[in-house]
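tokens incoming
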């Protein structure tokens, strides 16, 4: 059966040394399907992910177990193979840098000679390719995997091998830069976590291992239950929210790394009296009291001067600022030591776990120095958080730059068949 090719248009951005027209090839002219099940148990089981590609399961937080008997039917994935997964119609086709085995449900592709694997590693993850795949696959829905036959009928834009390598090197260099900046980010986070272990006392101790020079002769820290530091606590609203309304409502997804992300907000209309009872003010400490075991106990600081409330599963604690600085309290409650203690307070409930807000106030004991030392410690960690935010922004800008380049370096396919 004959097939109609679709010729690629000229890419918006092209390296000046290349003038030849691009070709278009069908998927099966570029990739072979392979299904090698001849392996032993020494090979790692690979998770096929949109974020990391094909990667050994033990390298990520992957909890699904695989029976030894079922592994016998698994397929071998070689370094440089591509994998069509159940989610390829959402996130493109994945690349493997590892030799391992994966579920026989996946389609394994081997690139034919004469092509640059890094070129296709980038192209098969582009929005443009995913759009072409969805457009040409009628009836594709969530949970239905793209078959090799369906992939083989897709036209892919292909330049010369030299231009493939040039495009791949350009985009891969940005990947390397993102990787380097990500390592810097992790280093800052590790430094912050290390300082938390040094600047806050350990269990049963009244002094931290490390104090700023001006406080080395200061008094010992005083341990106090959180309840003695709180002047007011209250739940958020249990009323239904919507996409619009007078007041924004913070939910669990807005609580990120001790701070708040003001995106994807819900909204609600309340009368003045109801709103005043649960209105947040700058310095309120928020506790996510009900959720899964991994997410329950999240703590964030409300640090805005805006009208805002929370959902009912978030409890707000208003502190006595003459006794404890909210920023200091937020940092200590977000330390690994205290997060472990807070999660230990969780008790099972229907399909979730729950932290009793009164128990939280009474059983969380906080070591507290004088106000001046609290301010100094809070300023130190705030400075590190600002560095973390700046580093995250740098990484996001690099990713956006790469995405923009991908849209310009890869051409569209003309709609008229030739």
């Amino acid at each position: 059966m004959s097939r109609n090719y679709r010729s690629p248009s000229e890419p918006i951005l092209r390296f000046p040394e290349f003038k030849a027209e691009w070709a278009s090839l069908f998927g099966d002219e570029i990739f072979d399907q392979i299904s090698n099940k001849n392996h032993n148990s020494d090979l790692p089981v690979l998770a096929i992910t949109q974020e990391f590609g094909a990667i050994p399961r033990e390298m990520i937080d992957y909890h699904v177990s695989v029976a030894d008997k079922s592994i016998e039917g698994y397929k071998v994935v070689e370094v440089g193979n591509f994998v069509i997964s159940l989610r390829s119609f959402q996130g493109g086709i994945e690349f493997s840098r590892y030799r391992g085995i994966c579920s026989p449900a996946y389609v394994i592709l081997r690139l034919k000679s004469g092509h640059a694997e890094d070129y296709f590693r980038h192209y098969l993850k582009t929005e443009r390719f995913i759009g072409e795949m969805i457009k040409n696959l009628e009836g594709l829905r969530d949970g239905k995997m793209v078959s090799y036959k369906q992939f083989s009928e897709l036209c892919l834009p292909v330049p010369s091998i030299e231009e493939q390598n040039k495009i791949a090197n350009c985009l891969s260099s940005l990947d390397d830069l993102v990787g380097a900046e990500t390592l810097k980010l992790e280093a800052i986070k590790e430094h912050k976590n290390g300082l938390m272990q040094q600047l806050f006392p350990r269990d049963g101790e009244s002094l931290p291992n490390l104090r700023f020079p001006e406080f080395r002769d200061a008094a010992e820290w005083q341990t106090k239950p959180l309840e003695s530091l709180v002047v007011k606590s209250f739940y958020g609203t249990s009323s239904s929210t919507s996409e619009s309304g007078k007041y924004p409502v913070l939910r669990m997804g807005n609580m990120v790394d001790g701070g708040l992300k003001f995106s994807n907000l819900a909204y609600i209309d309340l009368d003045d009296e109801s709103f005043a009872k649960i209105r947040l003010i700058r310095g309120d400490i928020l506790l996510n009291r009900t959720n899964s075991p991994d997410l329950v106990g999240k703590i964030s600081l409300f640090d805005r001067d805006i009208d805002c409330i929370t959902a009912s599963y978030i409890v707000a604690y208003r502190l006595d600022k003459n006794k404890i600085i909210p920023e200091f309290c937020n940092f200590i409650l977000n330390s690994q030591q205290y997060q472990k203690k807070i999660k230990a307070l969780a008790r099972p409930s229907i399909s979730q776990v729950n932290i009793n807000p009164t128990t939280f106030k009474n059983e969380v004991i906080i070591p507290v120095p004088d106000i001046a030392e609290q301010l100094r410690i809070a300023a130190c960690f705030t400075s590190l958080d600002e560095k973390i935010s700046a580093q995250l922004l740098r990484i996001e800008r690099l990713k956006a730059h790469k995405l923009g380049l991908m849209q310009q370096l890869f051409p569209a396919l003309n709609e008229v068949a030739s």
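note: Residues 23-158 form a domain with the Adenine-n6-DNA-methyltransferase TaqI; Chain A, domain 2 fold (CATH 3.90.220.20).
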